[in-house]
Amino acid sequence: MTGGATDTVARPLLELTGITKRYGDLLANDDVSLRVAPGEVVAMLGENGAGKSTLMKVVYGLVRPDAGTVAVDGRPLDISSPKDAMGAGIGMVTQEFSLVETMTVTDNVALSGTGLGRVDRAETRRRVVEAMERVGVSLDPDRLVGSLSIGERQRVEIVKALFHDCRVVILDEPTAVLTPQDVRALFETVRRLRAAGLGILVVSHKLREVAEISDRVVVLRRGRLVGDRVTATVRDEELAALMMGGSTDEVAAATATPAGEPSELEAAVGMGDPEPVQPAGAGPTTGEPVLLLTGLTVSRGGRDVLSGIDLTVRAGEIVGLAGVSGNGQTELVEVLSGTLPVTSGTLEVDGQDVTSADVGRRLAAGLGRLTEDRRGSVVPQMSVEYNLVLEDLPAYTKRGLLDRKAVRAHAEAMIERFDIRARPADAVATLSGGNMQKVLLARALARRPRVLVVAQPTRGLDIGAYRYVHQQLDELRTEGAGVLLVSEDLDELRALSDRVVVLFRGEVVGEMPVAEASPDRLGVLMAGGGSS
Amino acid sequence: MSINLLALIGAMLTIATPLVWAGIGELITERSGVLNLSIEGTMYLGAFIGFLAAARSGSPWVGLLAAVVSGVVAGALMAFFVVTLGLNQHVSGLGLTLLLIAICEFTFRLLYAGDRPTLDDKFTVLFRGTEVLAQHWLTYVGFLVLAPVTWWVLRSTGLGMRLHAVGESFEAADVAGISVTATRYVALMVGSALMAIGGAFLTLAVLGSFTLDIVSGRGWVCIALVIFARWRVWPAVLGALIFAGMDALQLQLAITSAFDAVPGELMLALPYLAVIAALAIGGRTVRYPGSYLKAYRRA
To answer: A289-373+449-526, superfamily in CATH?
Structure first.
């Protein structure tokens, strides 16, 4: 593991003391104390729901703690708004960016602290460019933020913190939405911030990232700080154990690779050598095709977003779809789901032509899907139990009336089987990302689909949920269904797929058994190096 | 057939004036993400209060001042509903319009019981005797001061940036330390004051009197203009001119013998048909401000 030396004697830049926050009977933060020194990168690890977000909101003035203090440079602060936090030198880069898409990079960076009068844009622009140069970010200051990629937007947020002379930068799940290239650029920026003497707190649930970027790791579990370790000397197993609450031995046993079988946790957290990921499947299968695309072409706005896609998913295999975001994956999932019409070509599910079928008929033909937009796939204010039966209402209807008992029984069974941490009557909106994904997974799998189309199934999920989703997909394959796995996480694709198909500019530019799908080879194809 | 072009242009500028004042007022409130459907009522209030104060004091200036104050109050009331209480913007705006018009009508009937009162002193026309330039000072200020100043404020000042940020993404504005509540209150109060001036123009400058159908849908036209203009000042002014041009044209055609065969009602509908056509053509691809119609509550 890498990581610089930690100067624990240095006066802390940021010091949290005894932060406690209670929501009803849930203790979100329980007496959390934490210090970040100048030039130090501290990682805060914890599963979803461990209390990381609440703690960050406290530091940023969005949530009032019931007890405890936040101090910068030894001065206790009264932070009641993000403006106070920024004024005190705390910059926050959240998962949901606080940017105005219709404004330029310059205006966004300078927005906070702008007075009411005339704005000297030339001067502001010069200072923004200067701030960008300090952290090695190159962006056009005149571009509208709405035209930037996710990674670029994140850089704008970092520049914003620096522009306002922040001395502590908090990055909340910074890699959750980034491509591998963007992650590398981000880490480079973080190193430069560290070299400039800033204190950095990275909130994450990905062990591999933590290992790569931090000097020190603190672990949060159920609102309590359960560990504080120097990154260079801590073992991953120990961190995983702290996060998940098992003993070290237990986790070590769970992650030890049994002969011939790959460990999914290993793939998930990058504990072992990340390179030789073995295919989990049994190699090429000869099952009958459950999903068959022939010459599938989709035009949107006069442009082919998908052109001439030929793709087969057979029973009992997982086909991974790789590609840099924006090369047609989203459209492919939409067209399979039935929310985007086919322009030409055909689409068959389990031998039935569903090219022009509506969503209901596709589901009936045996298609299941889990799109990347989790929140858009549920009715947030509706309860877990009703969301679970939403795609299958006729089966829960008696003489035109909803059979509440059956709905409840189904929900209880699903909650049990999929380990959903919620009660049947809870609104889905109140669930964590991981639990929401479990609800969607339960809904899709309860119908026993012949083929499941999943997109970014583990994005933003913690290790526990990550491993769980992978297990479910693996089981589905074992049971003889086909899976089309769309993911930007190459480790995930290589860990689960039997075959990998690469999409570039709406075309299939490569297809290979997973054994041949090295990251280098995929990278070249994803960048368009395989097309003529 | 004889259409006097200069007279047409002169009439167009006069007719466009209340639309420019109220339209820019609406544009400002909508930039903050609030659809202010109380515009029709606020214009009516400005027209009535302006008239009342001018009638009682004998000075149109006092009338105008009173109209501005009434507009600010109406804007604050709308802000209380949709910002402080977070109520639905459509319902609050329509409700306020109905309330304001009803109060004004009621008071008017109470005070003037069927009379048709006129002001002793109303605003006079500048450059009298010319066909195009013979306009009220409110017309000159509207086109030559209000529009360019608003354009500049929206584009080049911190105030404009705040309005933009709040209207597009109030979460981002909040994180940047911009008070969503204060910004929206100010936008609604200033915007409503401009709407009230637009209404007062009708009583204090054009008519020198008050009638119950004084505003007759001009507020709704402004709502359409702002969408047609996509929340930009100059296209809104242009839209107001086009609408007013159609209106001036139908007024002229109505007294032109060659058009006797065309029903007057059809002529009257002409400018409104133009609004519908403009929205149908240009309004379909409109991208609304990000926090349009939404009340802000910290998560």
So the answer is: P-loop containing nucleotide triphosphate hydrolases (3.40.50.300)
- The answer to whether the beta carbons of residues A269 and A241 sit under 8 Å apart is no
What is the rounded radius of gyration, in angstroms, for the C-alpha atoms of chain A? 24
- Chain A residue set in contact with B, beta carbons under 8 Å: 62, 81-83, 86-87, 92, 94, 96-103, 107-108, 111-119, 121
Question: What chain B residue is nearest to A107 in terms of C-alpha separation?
Answer: B161
**B:151-190 residues touching chain A, CB 8 A cutoff:** 156-159, 161-162, 164-165, 168-169, 171-178
Which sign does the torsion angle of CA A485, A488, A494, A496 carry? negative
| Domain with residues A14-253, CATH architecture | 3-Layer(aba) Sandwich (3.40)
Q: Model confidence over A133-178: pLDDT tens digits?
A: 888 888 899 999 988 877 788 889 889 888 888 899 999 888 766 7
**Shortest Cα distance from A8 to chain B (angstroms)?**
31
Nearest Cα of chain B lies from the Cα of A59 at a distance, in angstroms, of 13
ipTM rounded to 2 decimals: 0.85
Distance from CA of B47 to the nearest CA of A (A): 31
A77-104: buried (b, 16+ CB within 10 Å) or exposed (e) per residue?
Answer: bebebbbbbbbbbbbbbbbebbbbbbbb
**Domain residue ranges in chain A:** 14-253, 289-373+449-526
Picking from A87, A98, A114, the nearest residue to B175 by CB comes out as A98
Give chain A positions within 8 Å (CB) of B169. Answer: 98-101
Per-residue pLDDT tens over the stretch A170-207: 998 887 667 667 788 889 999 999 998 999 999 887 77
pTM as predicted: 0.72
Structural Rg of chain B based on CA atoms: 19
